[in-house]
UniProtKB/TrEMBL annotation, chains A, B:
UniProt keyword terms in alphabetical order: DNA-binding, Homeobox, Nucleus, Transcription, Transcription regulation
Subcellular localization, as worded in the UniProt entry: Nucleus
GO cellular component, one term: nucleus
Protein family according to the UniProt entry: Belongs to the POU transcription factor family. Class-6 subfamily.
Residue spans binding DNA: 152-211
Domain Homeobox: 150-210
Protein known as: POU domain protein
One of the record's GO molecular function terms: DNA-binding transcription factor activity, RNA polymerase II-specific
POU-specific domain location: 57-131
GO biological process terms, semicolon-separated: atrioventricular canal morphogenesis
Organism name: Oryzias melastigma (Marine medaka)
Length: 218, 218
DNA sequence: AGCATAAATAATAA
DNA sequence: TTATTATTTATGCT
């Protein structure tokens, strides 16, 4: 799948600078990806290389895992759940804890066959149950997931021009302030700390985007 | 720019049963939203208030629109498309232009019934077509989505023998130059940076194909 | 009606 | 895993 290809491409040392245009086409070749980089090979790399399957993976149906991963994502989205929610819910209910990253990596098959094999039934069971609750109404699903039923998106903050000026002056001096510094800036401007933190994140993004354009223009 | 990126997830004819889902879209409580804010009421606000429907909206099936909006989102995600991609594709193909914001607002029903009524068939038609192309392979879908059919393939670059010699000498020293180095080489040879980057990609590919060994092991 | 950008989510690095 | 970046979605403005 494209998903798998993308992962592979990104991990492959062959790729210089992951150019979005390259990624989106799915034109990269999974076969290009070396699986012997001193790490364990991932499902996404192995699934297209049945011949090279190393010892110890005979019992694992990689194709089945890939199918499930693909399906899992769609079903998760159909339920309107985020990777974070799934991870947190699993952590709450089951033995092992799963982070958002873990779910992300499973969906992208950026995971060893052994781990995938272990995780798959857990996800399968949980998802089926979530769908079951969802049938009875979204409220039940949210309870099952453990989220606050009506967690609303935060209202978009408007910064005053004065505040933006101050923020920019700080940004010029240091685009990556420490947590301590963020706290102080937030206090000075009398804004929420989190809001200030996000402002710096987005500001970095913007700068990066614009400067990238400039680079291409050169 | 980098809009149409990695998340080209999960293709394949996986049909999603239109289940009572709770995408974020539907998760908010429309009934809680006040209608009278001095603005025109939105579909999401009206759909649960059939009694209060104002004049001029008799001919519009709000429930149907809500169903479609919900479904549209799921189908869009199943195709692995972003709102941005949809908006851009629609803009490219049809008469009126649609921004990412427009798609977002349609999915959230944050749109007047009249606008929704107008947009719905457009989206319906486009999505069906997109799914059709997807059936034939993700590549077709991406062409359809990104598709300026008029956009011509870049003309194949001819390197002079001298340039190739220089490139090869660089390649021998370092098969995987950094972005900075590529830029410098391109400037020295007076070729397009992208062309040089691709040359290195292709050169590595060639080497790999012929040598069968992984030269790029870190 | 849509740009600019804040907020949220997904992906990657550490 | 946690921390951060990259990408997508949502929304205040006008």
């Amino acid at each position: 799948s494209t998903q798998a290809s993308v992962t592979t491409a990104t991990q492959s040392p062959v790729v210089i600078a992951p150019q979005p245009s390259m990624l989106k086409t799915g034109a990269t070749h999974p076969s290009m990806a070396p699986i012997n980089c001193g790490e364990l090979a991932k499902v996404g790399q192995l699934v297209n290389k049945p011949q090279q399957t190393a010892s110890g993976e005979e019992g694992i149906n990689l194709e089945e895992i890939r199918e499930f991963a693909k399906n899992f994502k769609i079903r998760r989205l159909s339920l309107g759940l985020t990777q974070t929610q799934v991870g947190q819910a699993l952590t709450a209910t089951e033995g092992p804890a799963y982070s958002q990253s873990a779910i992300c990596r499973f969906e992208k098959l950026d995971i060893t066959p052994k781990s995938a094999q272990k995780l798959k039934p857990v996800l399968e069971k949980w998802l089926a149950e979530a769908e079951h609750w969802n049938q009875k109404g979204q409220q039940n699903l949210m309870e099952f997931v453990g989220g606050e039923p009506s967690k609303k998106r935060k209202r978009r903050t408007s910064f005053t021009p004065q505040a933006i000026e101050v923020l920019n002056s700080y940004f010029e001096k240091n685009a990556l302030p420490t947590g301590q510094e963020i706290t102080e800036i937030a206090r000075e401007l009398n804004y929420d700390r989190e809001v200030v933190r996000v402002w710096f994140c987005n500001r970095r993004q913007t700068l990066k985007n614009t400067s990238k354009i400039n680079v291409f223009q050169v």
